[in-house]
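As promised in the previous annual report, we have extended the structural survey to additional targets. Below is the entry for YfkD family protein.
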Amino acid sequence: MKTCHRVYFYTLLLCLIGLWMPGSSFAEETKKESDIPSHVLDISKENTFPNSTEDQEIIEPSKLTKELMEEVDMPIENPELIKVLNESSIKPSPVAIGYRGMVYLGRWPINYQSAESNVNWEYQLINKNEMNNVDGEDVQKMSYYQQEEKEIQGALTSKISDPEQIKTMMLLKASENTKLPLSYKTVIGHNTKLPNSYNIPVQKHGILDAYAPAVNEKGQVTFGEVYIELKGSKKTIQVKNVTKQGIGAWIPVQDHLSFSFKVN
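The corresponding structure token record, generated without further manual editing, is:
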């Protein structure tokens, strides 16, 4: 009889473990999805300025370009360089025995390696709402109301060659790392408002500040001189005189605001 009780107990324990494990996994997924603080709100539906989503065109390497890139000892990630390689029409003659040649494509940013992607949820103050209830007799409510249109601009933090190409690579990597909607320019329109309300007690003065968040992206860019080398009927990519340079950028989070409410 005791043996039956033990079997029943262990069976029940295993069932409970089976039920608990998926719940733990779900909790971890929920935690990942809720990395945005509770005081940061998505205003994409309420924003009176229709920001265009900065979807970066993903340049897929052609079959030949992919084969050539696989033979290079460093990743080639610059979309503009991949586009040029895709459009290259240099084809060695199949009967060009002993032929050798080098075609110089220029000096390019080859790739960007991210070191860190940190979000500053209070990157730029863009609005301040105030309400005075010092002489009031009842609790007052205040809500966010955008008093004037604000444009938030991102930028690289230092000078570097081919800045637009590097900004594109950094934006792609920061978006991948943070899973946030990023853009180098976002606008908060005049008259944008939210229904959320904040209580201001009697004999108090309330202040509601709204901030535009942004990602501080930091990493390293690899530069190199790119050649197409021709050997008989074979074509390969050569990258020479490789250098590296550290770079940072501020990239605004699109259609999101961080709120700070205080009374005094």
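The chain has two domains: 1-29, 37-263. The beta strands are 40-42, 100-133, 140-145, 150-153, 155-156, 185-188, 193-200, 204-231, 234-252, 256-263. These points will be discussed at the next consortium meeting with the crystallography subgroup.
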